[in-house]
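yo, EF-hand domain-containing protein is done. seq:
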Amino acid sequence: MAATDELSGILMRRQAINEKLEDGVEVKPKYKFVNVYTEFHEFSRKEIKQYEHTFNKFDEGQDGFLDITEVKRMMERLGAPQTHLGLKAMINEVDEDGDNKISFREFLLIYRKARAGELESDSGLEAFARLTEINVDQVGVNGAKNFFEAKIEELAKTNKFHDEIVQEQEEKRREAEEKAMRKQRFKEKTALFQQ
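structure:
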C-alpha cells in the first residue's frame, strides 16, 4: 500500500469520525487491545513467545502485521509456495478484522485452529502450521531454539545472494587486515629512520 493511500484512508476515517461527532453519534475506536496470554490459554507462555519470535521473523516491515507479500515470502521460505489466490484465501481464513493482513493475534489463530483440526488439509495455513509447529514441552526451549536456528540456516543457504555477501565480507576483512599490516610495516620502517 502506498503512503498516499494509507494517508488518504486515515484522513477519510478522521473525516467520518468528525461528521459523526457533529451529528452526536458515538464513535467507537477501531482498535482493541488484546492480551494474547489470557485469550489463548491453551498455549503456554513459552509457546506464545516462540510463536511471537516466528511472527517477528517473517514481519519484514516490522509493522506488527503480515501483509500478502510477507505471507508469500514466508511460504516460499518454508518450501510451500502458494498462488496469489491461495495466499488471499490463507489470509481471509484468519483475518477477523478484514484489513487483509495477519496480526499477531490472528497469527495465533492459525495454531489454535491447527490444534483443533479446523484447518483444511490442503490449505496453505495447514501446511504453514505443520512446517512451523514445535512442541516446546517435548523438546524444551533449547530444542525450539535449535529447531528455528536450523531453519534459519537452511533458509540462508538457499538465498542466492548469501554466499556472495559472505564472500564480499571476507574480501573486505582481508583487505582491512592487509592495510593494517602495510601500515604497521610502514611505521616500523619510519621508526628506523627516526633513530
